[in-house]
Amino acid sequence: MWRHRDLVGIEGLSADEITHVLGQAGSFFEGSRRQAAGPRPQSRNLSGKIVVNLFLEPSTRTRTSFELAAKRLGADVVNVGGPSSSAVKGETLLDTVKNLEAMHADIVVLRHPASGAAQFVADRVDASVVNAGDGAHEHPTQALLDAFTIRNHKGKLSGLVVAICGDILHSRVARSDALALGKLGAEVRLCGPRTLMPVAPESLGPTVRSCARIEEAVAGADVVMMLRIQTERLQGPMLASSREYSRTFGLGERVLALAKPDAIVMHPGPINRGVELDPRVADGPHSVVLEQVEAGVAVRMAVLALVAGSDPVAAPGSESLGAPS
Ligand code: CP
After folding, report:
1. 210: which strand partners?
2. What is the pLDDT along the chain (325 residues), one digit of tens a residue?
3. Which atom of ligand 1 is nearest the CA belonging to 62?
4. Does 193 sit behind a cis peptide bond, omega within 30 degrees of 0 on the bond before it?
5. E strands, the chain, in order
6. Domain extents for the chain?
7. Topology at the third CATH level for domain 15-138+295-307
């Protein structure tokens, strides 16, 4: 079912492969929940493997959950990045990864500001490369954990209406989510200010369409996903002001009331409270934001095990992780 050495994007995955990852993640998720109050036995899928988290852009959720996921699978984990890495001294990305490979890294989890960085590295090294977000291109594990969270709540993805609102132009999450949810049969509505919409959003899939107004996107939706403005990627003034943006494209209780009564509200984080998301909605009964974060560990366990060529079969003594046998 899984024949990939790397995970660079959702674009290269079939619907069956995505469903397979979600299934594997489900086993890890259930096991982790059962163990939450007690000792955590480790699965040994990655025993003897070295996983390097190379994060050349800031991250809280993705980096931490990859580290926890690799540790729960028994890998040795090293974190590289920020001002403490030699990238700041001018070392190229490829030289950095080649040096990590010389220390026998088996999997490199890469976050990088440039679109295409993960594929560039994957084409040139033997280690498995997992894309943890490359510029405005893709964030595949975020899309997988989003699909997982939606399926947990709704029991399915096919036929659902998912509104994704915000800075679509610069969002790798929007791209990966639209690709993944579209492949799984959901209708995806992309919505944002005209200056923050890509030229042809419909090219992301036959079930993807754009909406000019948030009210149109949210009307009758099963899922409303809000995105922050990627200020670090804005080239020049593309918005009138945060207040104006919040008024026209923010999600508050008035707009949420247009969605289905049992709609869930999602956000990949970090949230800019009061800009794209009213705190009353972010913390309200429809919000599943922290469940997304929880799912991230299980989904990344599944991805790491799969790219390492190890079906997530629990080692003796770790059956309580719930990995499939
Ligand atoms: N969702 C996400 O990628 O968050 P981080 O930037 O904190 O990893």
Report:
1. 190
2. 899 999 999 999 999 999 999 999 999 998 888 776 666 656 778 999 999 999 999 999 999 999 999 999 999 999 999 888 999 999 999 999 999 999 999 999 999 999 999 999 999 999 999 999 999 999 999 999 999 999 999 999 999 999 999 999 999 999 999 999 999 999 999 999 999 999 999 999 999 999 999 999 999 999 999 999 887 777 666 666 888 999 999 999 999 999 999 999 999 999 999 999 999 999 999 999 999 999 999 999 999 999 999 765 443 333 333 333 2
3. 8
4. no
5. 50-55, 76-81, 107-112, 128-134, 161-165, 187-191, 208-211, 223-226, 264-266
6. 15-138+295-307, 140-291
7. Rossmann fold (3.40.50)
Tell me how far the alpha carbon of residue 249 lies from the centroid of ligand 1, in angstroms: 21
* Ligand 1 in reach of 149 Cβ (< 6 A): no
296 CA closest ligand 1 atom index: 1
User: Catalytic residue among 111, 170, 183, 189, which?
Assistant: 111
257: CB partners within 8 A, 6+ apart: none
CATH number, span 140-291: 3.40.50.1370
- Closest to 144 measured CA to CA, from 300, 284, 1: 300
Residue nearest to atom 3 of ligand 1 (CA): 62
pTM above 0.85, yes or no: yes
